[in-house]
Amino acid sequence: MFHKATKIVLVVEQLMRDKVCAVVEEEGAKGYTVIDCSGKGAHGMHPGGSRPSVIQGFSLSRIEVIVKDRAAAERIAEAVAEKYLKKQSGIVYIDDVEVLRPEKF
């Protein structure tokens, strides 16, 4: 049986990855998944994956976090945005998901 949960997706420069993951943990998430990625937005192209970057830290990481309820997701997203995204590039979005084994989240 599937159970409702909320996923937070944070796309940040790799330079910020460890700091963002620390906030995710401090705010109570049991775990997360980090995926190296690339993309283009307001700050231009961020090469990644198999494409080399002049400075590796400017490549992107996608951090996915699943928590049991939306309030926890919003708290994590707002804490990351407040602490790191005022002057750094990055995006955050929240999505409703359904999971097996809800005790993992």
The total strand number stands at 6
The helix fraction, in percent, is 25-40%
Task: State the helix count.
Answer: 2
How far apart lie the N and C ends?
A: 15 Å
CATH top level label: Alpha Beta
Largest sheet: 4 strands, antiparallel
Mind telling me the C-alpha Rg? 14 Å
Helices and strands, in N-to-C order?
EHEEEEHE
- Overall geometry comes to globular
The secondary-structure class comes to alpha+beta
Enumerate the strands of the largest sheet in spatial order, edge to edge or round the barrel: 2-5-1-6
Low-confidence stretches: none
Mean pLDDT figure? 88
What is the CATH T-level topology?
A: Alpha-Beta Plaits
Report on this model:
- By secondary structure, the chain is an alpha+beta fold.
- The protein has one domain (3-104): Alpha-Beta Plaits (2-Layer Sandwich), CATH 3.30.70.120.
- It has 2 helices and 6 strands, in the order βαββββαβ.
- The protein has helices spanning 14-26, 70-84; strands at residues 3-13, 33-37, 39-41, 44-46, 60-67, 90-99.
- It has a 4-stranded antiparallel beta sheet. The chain has a two-stranded antiparallel sheet with strand order 3-4.
- Strand 3 (39-41) and strand 4 form a beta hairpin.
- The longest helix has 15 residues, at 70-84.
- It is globular, with a radius of gyration of 14 Å.
How is this structure best summarized?
The chain is of the alpha+beta class. It has helices spanning 14-26, 70-84, and strands at 3-13, 33-37, 39-41, 44-46, 60-67, 90-99.
